[in-house]
Amino acid sequence: MQSVRTALGREPGPPHPLYHHLEQTLPELEAQAEQIQRRVAENRVALLDRLAEAAQHNGWRVCRSSNPEEAVEYIGAVAEGLADTRVMRSDQEVFQQLPVDGALTGLGLSVTVMARSDQETRDEHQTTTTQKHREEAAVAGLGIT
After folding, report:
1. Could you tell me the pTM of the whole model?
2. Residue 107 burial (CB count, 10 A)
3. Lowest-pLDDT range, 8-17, 36-45, 50-59, 68-77?
4. Cβ count within 10 A of residue 55
5. CB under 8 Å to 87, separation ≥6 — which residues?
6. Closest by alpha carbon to 137, among 114, 115, 104, 107?
7. Is 35 exposed, middle or buried (0-12, 13-18, 19+ CB in 10 A)?
8. Of the candidates 145, 144, 139, which has an alpha carbon nearest to the alpha carbon of residue 84?
């Protein structure tokens, strides 16, 4: 950062608050990450309570189940009352452990999985698929995440 300041003709000084992480070492950043993980683990229940409260405040139905069967049963009960047979769900790992798709298709519903890419892409097929999924999500009778 000092070489950048010098090249810009600026006086040496403390780093800008937004850039102080650029001057930290890998061990310092790893220690911070461990501290954050520890704090999240210690406050997990309270954080989940806050997340559920915020989601409910925004109109989401929240189910906190103690086992996969209970979760699938709840989702099935919500889905049974739908006028629209289209369901959009996220591709989160938890759905590999929950037989949600089978339960919903057994009720005569159509399930579409919306994958979220962590990387920007310029691939025309991926862009078209993402746009199609967004349009489907906007009209789906149920969204599950």
Report:
1. 0.61
2. 14
3. 8-17
4. 13
5. 79, 104, 109, 110, 111, 112, 140, 141, 142, 143, 144
6. 114
7. exposed
8. 139
Give me the phi and psi of 110, to 5 degrees please: -100, 125
3-state secondary structure of 31: helix
Split at pLDDT 50, 70, 90, the class of 16 is low
The more confidently predicted of residues 12 and 16 is 12
Burial of 59-91, coded b for 16+ CB within 10 Å and e otherwise, reads eeeeeeeeeeeebbeebeeebeebeeebbbbee
Q: Which phi and psi (to 5°) does residue 104 adopt?
A: -75, -40
Instruction: Of 120, 98, 130, 126, give the one whose Cα is nearest residue 144.
Output: 98
The radius of gyration of the chain from alpha carbons, rounded to an integer in Å, stands at 23
* Structure token digits, residue 110: 């159509």
Whether 100 and 47 have beta carbons less than 8 Å apart is answered as no
Helices (H), 13-123: 26-42, 44-57, 68-80, 100-106
> Distance of CA 85 to CAs 1, 12, 25, 123, Å?
56, 63, 52, 30
